[in-house]
Design a protein that fits this description.
The protein contains 2 helices and 4 strands, in the order E-H-E-E-H-E. With 81 residues, the chain is of the alpha+beta class. The protein has one domain: Alpha-Beta Plaits (2-Layer Sandwich). Strands 2-3-1-4 form a 4-stranded antiparallel sheet, with no helix packed on it. Strand 2 and strand 3 form a beta hairpin. Helix 1 runs antiparallel to helix 2. The radius of gyration is 12 Å and the shape is globular. The two termini are 18 Å apart.
Length: 81
Amino acid sequence: MPVYMIERGFADQLEIDAARLKEIDDAEVALDVRWITTFLSADKKKSYCLYEAEDVEVLRLHAERLGFPLDAITEVDELKR
């Protein structure tokens, strides 16, 4: 499955509680999206997330369902550890 980097900008600092995490998990399961990792900027106003997903449209739907901004989607060609 393709891997994508999602860039999101937030007006306020990103704070996610347990209930919101459950919503995110449920949306991922429903849409067959697999979260890999997230990087959060020091000011907590930007996030960069890696996801596996069928295609870009599924990621757009995921963001829309959760009310998350979606500034950019970039397909990642290779992951190195």
